[in-house]
């Protein structure tokens, strides 16, 4: 059967990607309802060679359009205010913002890792999509945890500007143009705390009392919730001048006594759904943003055992932030939800 599907934030970076991914996955859509603010109501989007008019997000729009599945990607405050109207209209909300993620009654799902949690959607009508950095990290942690049991994770991220939406992407491009026009000193700084072109910024989101940033603490708390485990996680989240793929340098400490077999770890990663290994350092082969961009794969490479501790493994992990970190994960949640609901 087919569903009436709404996309809230239809004109945003993730919203636009959602339409592409929904088409590619042949999502069973009856009626498609693109929603945004009054600013872009009346504009059009294209889906499967057909034009759709963007409608204004209102309290009644879900009921009026008989929406059954609503993807939300318009920021936390929009989800906070409007998700309930979609739920009241009988829809399941798949929310891409951080607003509901740590609510104990809302499942937080990466379908390859914890699909079983989706059944709890009935508690609130909402399923949360994790933070982009968390999604690609747990996709590589899960097979390693199944293999050896993870005790601790230390991660440094290299995060693309797409995490800050279209504004972030446009700001990087503009600053690069300003650089080549010899006017980088006059460039506008809006999306980030500092100039991002030719720079790296070791701050994503706001400071927390413990010295970490909010983005870093999202990686801690969301990873524990998805993995159902009190893992120790320490993150350093860094914004880099890359358009739309996040990279992560990850150090995993397994349980005491584990002697990591690197080939076994590599095989476990390669066998996991939607993960691919590119790991041939001698031939300059490893994952990079230019490899992962526009794909639905989380790439892992530079896999190596620690020189000192036999229970410690290091690797590098890259994925498209807009797809794997947002739109594709949301669509995969939707497909899994449909599969499970049909079984009930
Ligand atoms: P609009 O184009 O009408 O502003 P991005 O993450 O790329 O910045 O995109 C944000 C998305 O969220 C856009 O589609 C934007 O629509 C939408 N949006 C932002 N604020 C609201 C709001 N108050 N109501 C509905 N949609 C909103």
Question: Could you explain the architecture of this structure?
Answer:
The chain is of the alpha/beta class. It folds into 2 domains: 3-129 and 326-343, Rossmann fold (3-Layer(aba) Sandwich), CATH 3.40.50.720; 133-321, Dihydrodipicolinate Reductase, domain 2 (2-Layer Sandwich). It contains 9 helices and 14 strands. The chain has helices spanning 13-24, 61-64, 76-88, 132-148, 165-180, 214-227, 262-271, 289-292, 323-343; strands at residues 3-8, 29-36, 44-47, 50-53, 55-56, 69-72, 92-95, 126-128, 150-158, 232-236, 245-254, 275-277, 298-305, 312-320. The chain is globular. The chain starts with a strand and ends with a helix. Adenosine-2'-5'-diphosphate (A2P) is lined by residues 9-15, 36-37, 39-40, 57, 74-75, 78, 165-167. Adenosine-2'-5'-diphosphate binds next to helix 1 and helix 5.
Structure at a glance:
With 344 residues, the protein is an alpha/beta fold. It has helices at 13-24, 61-64, 76-88, 132-148, 165-180, 214-227, 262-271, 289-292, 323-343; strands at residues 3-8, 29-36, 44-47, 50-53, 55-56, 69-72, 92-95, 126-128, 150-158, 232-236, 245-254, 275-277, 298-305, 312-320. The protein folds into two domains: 3-129 and 326-343, NAD(P)-binding Rossmann-like Domain (Rossmann fold, 3-Layer(aba) Sandwich); 133-321, Dihydrodipicolinate Reductase, domain 2, CATH 3.30.360.
């Amino acid at each position: 059967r087919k569903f009436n599907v709404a996309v809230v934030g239809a004109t945003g970076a993730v919203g636009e990607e959602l339409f592409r991914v929904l088409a590619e996955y042949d999502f069973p859509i009856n009626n498609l309802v693109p929603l945004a603010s009054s600013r872009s109501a009346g504009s059009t989007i294209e889906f499967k060679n057909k034009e759709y008019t963007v409608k204004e997000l209102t309290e009644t729009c879900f009921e009026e359009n008989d929406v059954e599945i609503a993807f939300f990607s318009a920021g936390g405050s929009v989800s906070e205010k409007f998700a309930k109207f979609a739920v009241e209209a009988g829809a399941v909300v798949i929310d891409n913002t951080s607003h509901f993620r740590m609510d104990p009654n809302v499942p937080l799902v990466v379908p390859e890792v914890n699909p079983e949690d989706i059944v709890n959607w009935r508690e609130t009508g909402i399923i949360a999509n994790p933070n982009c950095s968390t999604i690609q990290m747990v996709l590589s942690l899960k097979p390693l945890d199944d293999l050896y049991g993870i005790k601790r994770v230390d991660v440094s991220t290299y995060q693309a500007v797409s995490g800050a939406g279209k504004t972030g992407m446009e700001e990087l491009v503009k600053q690069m143009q300003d650089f080549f026009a010899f006017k980088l000193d006059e460039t506008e700084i809006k999306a980030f705390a500092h100039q991002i072109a030719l720079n790296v910024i070791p701050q994503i989101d706001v400071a927390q009392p413990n010295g970490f940033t909010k983005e870093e603490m999202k990686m801690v708390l969301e990873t524990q919730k998805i993995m159902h485990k009190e893992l120790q996680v320490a993150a350093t989240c860094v914004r880099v001048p890359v358009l739309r793929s996040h990279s992560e340098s990850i150090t995993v400490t397994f349980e005491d006594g584990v002697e990591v077999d690197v080939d076994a770890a590599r095989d476990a990663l390669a066998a996991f759904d939607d993960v691919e290994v590119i790991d041939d350092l001698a031939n300059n082969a490893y994952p990079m943003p230019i490899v992962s961009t526009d794909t639905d794969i989380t790439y892992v490479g530079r896999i190596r055992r620690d020189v000192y501790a036999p229970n410690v493994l290091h690797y590098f992990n890259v994925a498209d932030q807009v797809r794997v970190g947002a739109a594709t994960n949301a669509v995969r949640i939707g497909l899994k939800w449909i599969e499970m609901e049909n079984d009930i």
